[in-house]
Amino acid sequence: MPKGTILVVDDSFATITVVERILKNEGYKVITSFDGVDGLKKAYIDFPDLVILDLVLPALDGFEVCRSLKQSEKCKGIPIIIVTARKELIEGERERIGADDYIIKPFKEKELLKKVEKVLDKK
Length: 123
Known about the structure:
Blueprint: E1 5-9, H1 13-25, E2 29-33, H2 36-46, E3 50-54, H3 62-71, E4 80-84, H4 91-97, E5 101-104, H5 109-122
Parallel strand pairs: 1-2, 1-3, 3-4, 4-5
Helix pairs in contact: 2-3
């Protein structure tokens, strides 16, 4: 039985492949999406335990996906970890869009797992 279900939304095949491998090796079920619109749909349908979300996405950016999920009655309790290459992402911006945490690319496997476990423990 999986530890939980995590939706990974990123436009980079390489990032999704790495994150999916890391999470599956730890016993999580992983759902993936390569754009914001599809990611939002999958969140509403699959109702994951956590969303790992890139900010720069085709169709609908991560800011809008995050805001939409946090404003949704059904999905507002799903924690969101932002994964971004934007080093200038500041704490206030993360809080403004409602994300629970963030991690800067490139990241180490242990760093990602620590963030995932920390956010899921709070749920």
